[in-house]
Structure formats: C-alpha cells, structure tokens
Design goal:
This protein is an alpha/beta fold. It has 2 domains: 11-254, Aspartate Aminotransferase, domain 2; 256-380, Aspartate Aminotransferase, domain 1 (Alpha-Beta Complex), CATH 3.90.1150.10. 47% of the residues lie in helices and 14% in strands. It is built from 14 helices and 11 strands. The protein has helices at residues 11-16, 26-43, 57-68, 82-93, 111-121, 142-151, 171-174, 200-208, 220-229, 238-254, 256-277, 303-314, 338-354, 361-380; strands spanning 49-54, 74-79, 97-102, 125-129, 131-132, 137-138, 155-159, 178-181, 193-198, 292-296, 326-330. The strands form 3 sheets. The chain has a 7-stranded mixed sheet, sandwiched between helices. Strand 5 and strand 6 (137-138) form a beta hairpin. Helix 11 (256-277) packs antiparallel against helix 14. The chain binds pyridoxal-5'-phosphate. Pyridoxal-5'-phosphate binds next to helix 3. Residues 5, 56-58, 83, 129, 131, 133, 159, 161-162, 182, 185, 191 line the site of pyridoxal-5'-phosphate (PLP). It holds the Pfam family Aminotran_5.
C-alpha cells in the first residue's frame, strides 16, 4: 500500500480497531480525553477546541467550512489543485460568496498575489491546503500566507490531511484558526475517523453565529457535547476512535521531531531512487511535497497501465492522480520504512521496463541505498 492513502496501519492500530466499547461510559470518556490531549500535541496547539469527526477527511473539511461560513460570508480559497478546490466547492454550497485564487499546476501562490486577493475580497475566511496531494505541491509559505490573512482579520482554515505528523505544522505559532486531518494518511490510522481543531477566535465565531449549521452531524456545537461533555450527539465510531487513539499514541511515543526526520529521510531517498531510475519528479524542488511523491509518466504509458501492472506483477499499490500525467507514491506514516522503499523502487523500475520504458534499475536501487545510508550516518553523528 504505497499509494496516496489509505496507508498501512501498525498492528496496535489494527488491534484497537477490533474492540467495541460503550460509547458513553467512563472508559470512552478517558479515551476521548487522551485523544484530545495527544491531538493537541500533534496539531501543536493549546486550544481546547479539538474534536473528532465520524467521517473522511472531507467531513472534517466540511465541518470547518459549514461552521464558519454561511450565506453571504466572504471566503477566499487558495486553489492549488483537486483538494483545495474542494474547500471552495463546499463554501459555495453553504451559500458563501467564494472567490478563488487559482494557482497554476506545480506552483505556489506568490505572497503578492495572496495579499492582493485578500485586499480585493476582504474575506472573513481563507482556505488553503498545506500539502496538495493531487499534484504533490507543498505550500511552503503557509506560515507567511496565514500571517497576511490574519493581519486582514480573516480566519484561516488549513487542510493538513496528508501533512499532519509528516511535515512540521504549528497551529498556534503560525496563527492558524482551523486545522483538519483524516485518519488514513499521515497518522497511519484507519479511514473514516478524522480530527479537527478550532482556535479560540474560530470557536467564538462558531459559538456566536445566529443561524444554526444546516449540517446537523457536523454542527461543532452539538459535537462538543460528545467531545467535551461526555454527552450524546451521535453514536461515535468507537472502534475507529480507539484505532485513532493508538495511532496518536504511536506518534507521541516516536515524537514529532523524529517522525518528521524519518519522513524527510525516506522521502528524499525515494526521490533520489526514482530520479536515478531515469524518471522525472513532477513538482519542482522548491515546492515539492515530501508526503506524496509525484512522478511524471514517460511517453507511451498511462497511469492506469503502470498502477495495474505494479499491483498485479509486484503486489505494490501506487496511485494515479485524477487525470494528471503522473503516478504517485505515498510517504506517510508506515509507508516510510526502508523495506517498503526498496520494494517500491524495485517494483517501479521493473514495471517500467516490463512496459517498454528504458530505466536504470541498479542505479535507482543504488541511489536509494546511498541516500538512506548517508542519512543514517548523518543521524548517528
Ligand atoms: C485525501 C485528502 C483529502 C480527502 O480526504 P478523504 O478522507 O478522502 O475525504 C483532503 N485533502 C487532502 C490534502 C488529502 O490528501
């Protein structure tokens, strides 16, 4: 499972996911308390307003949007691709006045363009993705963009589905108002149970809105009853929450610092292996996402052919990308293990040559090894 999510889960997470407990008892209350405490560390926030969501990352996204925006709310969506576009779409559906800042593929918005768009639209809410999984672009100036938006009085919603716990993100220090994530990517938990954190300012807007959120399940005030008062909202996916609890515990045990270093080291080694095969990385280095690596397709092969062949012949799953001429290899959570990298580079090289593309397989594997061992020498120093 080396695609763009879901990613493999550790045994402890799988085991937790087999257990069903009372959704309202003392044990669940303790689990929820610990999930929030650990999530605060992972989000790097002291905010009280951390909640879980029964649903995919998109449900957390919709929870952010539908609680903060309503008919007439001015929303500026910085659109880098498929997932950041989804936030604009959701804002439109709740009746907000949405303006998009459309950024060209494989590029990030310049700070000037963002400043001008903010000046022009005076948004109450700005949405942006930290890592755009679809075209593998990393919004590396996220912190500066948040500062611009905050200075203009906007609340900032950040999609960190593929980046949370894989790349540094500091909710409080960067001034972010809402961070959302899914379970099945960076956190290496199961799909279907997600997390969201609101800043005090964002929570104040949610608390004081006059018309209630039309999405009953995603109403943050109703959800608070479960996530903060041990009361009933809807029946929580208890097994999934236990799995998430275990996944967060593993992140805390590893520490964010070491986890970021593991992801960086593995992703750079993979990138170097892929390049040495003779294949082209899709995104320029200046805004290249580490969590998901995009690889340009050589002439004459399609993403579907490559993904099918590598799956059937080598039992490695990788992903295409919504019509873009690339395949993607994930580097999130459990995917960032050396044995997975060797198997993947080997399988990708063999697949390409099976399909008639000339690649240098020994050079790819050697570059991977070289990069990993240089990384461990560095780490031992
Ligand atoms: C996967 C992903 C999503 C959507 O998550 P789902 O769980 O499929 O709803 C949103 N944003 C980003 C950046 C993603 O990578």
């Amino acid at each position: 499972m080396m695609g763009a999510g879901p990613v493999p889960i550790p045994d402890a997470v799988a085991k937790a996911n087999t257990v069903v407990i009372n959704h309202l008892g003392d044990t669940m209350a303790r689990v929820i308390h610990q999930v929030k405490t650990m999530a605060r560390y992972v989000f790097q926030t002291r905010s009280n307003w951390v909640l879980g969501v029964a649903g995919p990352g998109s449900a957390a996204m919709e929870m952010a949007i539908s609680n903060l925006a309503w008919p007439g709310t001015r929303v500026l969506s910085i659109v880098n691709g498929f997932f950041s576009q989804r936030m604009a779409e959701m804002a439109g559906r709740v009746g907000a006045e949405v303006t998009t800042l459309d950024v060209a593929d494989r590029q990030i918005a310049s700070l000037e363009a963002v400043a001008q768009a903010i000046e022009r639209t005076r948004p109450a809410v700005v949405t942006i993705v930290h890592g755009e999984t679809s075209n593998t672009v990393w919004n590396r100036e996220l912190k500066e963009i948040v500062q611009l938006a905050k200075a203009a009085g906007a609340l900032v919603v950040v999609d960190a589905v593929c980046t949370l716990s894989t790349m540094p993100l500091e909710m409080d220090a960067w001034g972010i108002d809402v961070v959302i994530t899914g379970g099945q990517k960076g956190l290496s938990s199961i799909p279907g149970v997600s997390l969201i954190a609101f800043s005090d300012a964002a929570w104040e807007r949610v608390r004081t809105r006059t018309a209630p959120n039309t999405h009953w399940c995603l109403d943050a005030i109703l959800a608070e009853n479960f996530w903060h008062n041990a009361g009933y909202h809807y029946t929580a996916p208890v097994s999934g929450v236990l799995a998430l609890h275990e996944a967060l515990r593993l992140v805390c045990t590893e520490t964010l610092e070491k986890r970021f270093a593991r992801h960086l080291r593995c992703s750079l080694a993979l990138q170097s292996g892929v390049s040495a095969l003779g294949l082209a990385l899709y995104t320029p280095q200046t805004c290249r996402l580490n969590s998901v690596v995009g690889i340009g397709l050589p002439e004459g092969v399609t993403a579907r052919e490559v993904c099918n062949h590598i799956s059937q012949q080598y039992q490695v799953e990788i992903a295409g990308s919504f019509g873009l001429p690339i395949v993607r290899i994930g580097q999130m959570g459990e995917q960032c293990r050396e044995h997975n990298l060797f198997r993947t580079v080997h399988a990708l090289g063999r697949t390409m040559s099976d399909l008639g593309v000339k690649v240098d397989l020994p050079a790819g594997v050697a570059a991977l090894e070289e990069s990993l061992s240089a990384g461990s020498r560095e780490a031992r120093r």
